[in-house]
Request: fold
Amino acid sequence: MTVKAGMILFLLLTMTTCCMAAEEKTLRIATLNEIKSPSFLGDYSTGLFNHISNPPLMQMDSSGKIIGLLADSFDVSSDNTKWTFNLKPNQYWSDGKPVTGEDVAFSINMYGKSIPSAGWIGETLKDTQVDGNKVTFTFNKPYTNLDREFTSYSIMPKHIWESIDNPVNFTSNGPYVGCGPFYVDKIDLNAGKLIFKKNPSWKGNAPYYDQVEISWFKNADAAAKALESGAMDTYWKYADAYPYSAVDSLKATGKFDILETPTSGMTFLGFNLKNEPLSDVNFRKAIAESINYPEFVQVSTLGHGSIPNSGFVPPAMDGYVDTQAMQYNPEDAKKILQEAGYKDSDGNGIIEGPDGKDTVLELLIRNSFSREAELLKEYLNAVGIGTDIKSVEDNTWFDLKDNYKYDITLTRTTPWGMLMHAGWATGYFDSRRTGQGVLHTVDDKKFLDLCDNILATTDKSKLKEYAKEVQNYYAENLPGIPLYWKNDVTPYNKDITGWYSSPLYGIMNEFTFTGVKPVA
Reply:
């Protein structure tokens, strides 16, 4: 070998070694939560991921307990109207500036003024005071569950966002300044990726990985194939499980372990209580009896679920009460309808209401609920209730739902949704509550007073009794009908350890992002 050739070989080896040393360590996560706009606060899916880069004040641990995240403690006044949050020291934005109480005060007030789903903040927050790393919020009425509420509102850097006039409509492909262990470096709609980079100013437990790639897929089959091929390390979809139909084939690869846990998320049938005949509780009871729950459990969960109870709240939630299980009895459903004055006088198979017209309900759904909608239509038709399915995109569903332009709708709860407001799913039904996923259909004073009582008390024995009252109210009045309870299924790469799951966000949490690393 000549001296010149030897030098070239040496340089090539050196360059290769340097490139290998510089190669970034990447954790890869598959999801079906597609980002449709690079809007940090305006896009639903981006909002699911941004609590990693912009942590809320509080978080939930694996046991369901609320613990500190950006804040390490809080104090509450005796009347539950004044909450003071104490921020952890030595927290820095990814641009090197320190996190302060001003960032927290700005963020919470911004949500109340600019984010429609956080309208309750604007309506109830009357004063905000900052004293160094202490932030005090004073509300115009008691609010017992504020620590739970503040697990979902990401804190933003005031020095960046105060100059943005319309936060919801602001878009950028990144980077976005964050103060978590990672910040959002890039949102690439063409590649279908959100890329987190390690925060250079992070002072907490050092992450092993330099970056985390979130890749979204068009459908469950594509995501499952990506995992089976080894291209992804895990799968996460907010408030939903890995596709049940793909679990066995993924196990067969021998590359993944499966974490299966009960969840408070569910699919349920909601009613527009402003419309007849849905305002008639007997009509709702007849619908409840017409549904084939065992078939729903089998078709929708493939054995990873169970028949729900009429109290709506699943056993996975603290405060669960064992109410009557939902019953499938179409003959009883027909009898209830007949006794309530709904009869098929002309023999066309569809019952008429008191006005003499055929009872045909508009079933409003988002596209992802099409299979469940067809089953439900079949069950309702069998007892004489006509059904027209109207399938729309998410934003159209939000608009039609908020303007009560439907009769019945299929939707779902999330673990966060079950906790929000007064807890135990009250946020989905209280007519005073706003938000994309809520129905706000119940204006019954008895129910509203019950919600207010929960929010005002600090007595745990009373809370236990209120939880029972809420579930009994659901069982008696059926503002919503749970179709099945289910388990969450999360696959993860066997060669990586440190996975941490909480009831609120599953593995999408700071513990996972700072704790995962290759098995030694």
In short: The longest strand covers residues 256-271.
